[in-house]
Amino acid sequence: MSEAPDPHPTGSETSPAIVAIPTYNERDNIETTVAAALTGCERIDILIVDDSSPDGTGDLADALAEAHERVHVLHRAEKQGLGAAYLAAFAWAAEHGYRTVVEMDADGSHDPSDLPRLLAALDAGADVAIGSRYIPGGAVRNWALHRLALSRAAGVFTRAMLGLRVKDVTAGYRAYRLDGLHKLQLDTVNSVGYCFQIDLTWRAVKAGFDIREVPIVFTERRAGASKMSGAITVEALWNVSRWGLAHRARQLRNAFRRGRIEG
């Protein structure tokens, strides 16, 4: 009798890998998303991070974990935001011996068939692989024009303020090597909403990480309500502005010091 194939091939630098899926009221989406991820990439396990969803998402997540040995659940006492959910997932993954963690939305907007390409980027030497909507080959489907314009404008503003070359700085579909995350001083991260993605991108750039963008097609959620809000937008605008002003001030001070030394 032949042995079952190892779901975590030892020849891969990214294995074992786990996909972290934060949830809050995603009962209509989570089952389909998990099934697609398990089928789309045999190399990964899944961690559902549920913030005590009142719609019963956590109970459904437990049922999925009971049915699939590759699915795990982390229950949190209350809704604390996307950033806190991912930080909890990073800690859980490190404690359980994973080498890679992938961030993925629960709502079906991220195509699990892209998982192998994200992991391949890390296998090829990247520290961070970002599923990018805004590089050749990437695209957005079924978004209203105003939402696409807001996303594009946020990217332009962020890149200008922080001097970033990453095209999709707010992307939520990305993979990290866990052995490098400790260099990002995660204990000082306090970004709550989607600004968390900008925060970690900025930290990764400053840490000298090899960041590679992989083109993906992002599709609007299948069901349920978007978690985007005015407060989340304000948080991102405020943080990027203060980080950018501090960054430019440091550049000016360094230029002044170099001028004095050369003079």
Please sum up the structure shown.
This is Polyprenol monophosphomannose synthase. The chain is α/β, with parallel strands linked by helices. Helices cover 44% and strands 16% of the residues.
Description:
The strands form 2 sheets. A 7-stranded mixed β-sheet has the order 3-2-1-4-7-5-8, sandwiched between helices. The protein has a two-stranded parallel sheet with strand order 6-9. The protein contains 8 helices and 9 strands. Residues 1-11 have low confidence and may be disordered. It has one domain (17-262): Alpha-Beta Complex (Spore Coat Polysaccharide Biosynthesis Protein SpsA, Chain A). The protein is globular, with a radius of gyration of 19 Å. It has helices spanning 27-40, 57-67, 82-95, 115-123, 145-162, 178-181, 195-206, 230-262, and strands spanning 17-23, 44-50, 71-75, 100-103, 128-132, 139-141, 174-177, 211-215, 217-219. The protein is an alpha/beta fold. Helix content is 44%, strand content 16%. The longest helix is centred in the C-terminal third of the chain and has 33 residues, at 230-262. It starts with 16 loop residues before the first strand and ends with a helix.
Please name the defining characteristics of this protein.
263 residues; alpha/beta; Spore Coat Polysaccharide Biosynthesis Protein SpsA, Chain A; seven-stranded mixed sheet; two-stranded parallel sheet; 8 helices; 9 strands; 44% helix; globular; disordered N terminus; Glyco_trans_2-like
